[in-house]
Amino acid sequence: MKRTESISSAQVLKKTQPEEFDLVILGGGTGSTIAAWTFAGEGKQVAVVERKYIGGSCPNIACLPSKNIIHSAKVASYFRRSKEFGITHDGFAIDMADVRERKRSMVRALNNIYMGNYRNTGAEFILGTGVTNGRCVSSNTESPASASIA
């Protein structure tokens, strides 16, 4: 009977060589994603290392979600003022749970679009924190990325 050794996942990760990329971009905002998709589309090995959000904060918690909620508020305002436009109604209610779900649904759809673009272009998205020492870039994820700085 053969004896097998038990190796922790941390030990396995330490033995794993970093992946090599032509370009590693720290931060996954709009400019970074467009650059990554463009260079990957040209055949470069590209990775984007983003700390928290696919596509950065704008499509997830800032610009677009806030505009989505503002649009719901505008619709409610127009509905309240509908009599000014010759439209009568018996009243209405705002369901904030539905407003929030509409926003979450939009964010999920945008994330799916972003991930589809990463898959279609061949760029890699790494959720983690990236650092550079002036010559190399590395990330603190289970799938380390590295690129030399020329």
Task: Tell me briefly what this model is.
This protein has helices at 9-15, 30-41, 63-80, 96-121, and strands spanning 19-20, 23-26, 46-50, 124-127, 130-132, 136-139, 145-148. It has a single domain, classed as FAD/NAD(P)-binding domain, CATH 3.50.50.60. α2 packs parallel to α4 and α3 packs antiparallel against α4 (96-121).
Structural features, described:
The protein has 150 residues and is of the alpha/beta class. It has one domain: FAD/NAD(P)-binding domain. It contains 4 helices and 7 strands. The strands form 2 sheets. A 4-stranded mixed β-sheet has the order 1-7-6-5, with no helix packed on it. A 3-stranded parallel β-sheet has the order 2-3-4, covered by helices on one side. Strand 6 and strand 7 form a beta hairpin. Helix 2 runs parallel beside helix 4 and helix 3 packs antiparallel against helix 4. It is elongated, with a radius of gyration of 23 Å. The termini are far apart. The N terminus is likely disordered.
Shape: elongated
Q: In the CATH hierarchy, what is the class?
A: Alpha Beta
Strand order of the largest sheet: 1-7-6-5
The proportion of strand residues reads 15-25%
- Radius of gyration, in Å, reads 23 Å
CATH arch. level architecture: 3-Layer(bba) Sandwich
Which segments are poorly predicted (pLDDT under 50) over 5 or more consecutive residues? 1-15
SSE topology sketch:
Elements: H1 9-15, E1 19-20, E2 23-26, H2 30-41, E3 46-50, H3 63-80, H4 96-121, E4 124-127, E5 130-132, E6 136-139, E7 145-148
Parallel strand pairs: 1-7, 2-3, 3-4
Antiparallel strand pairs: 5-6, 6-7
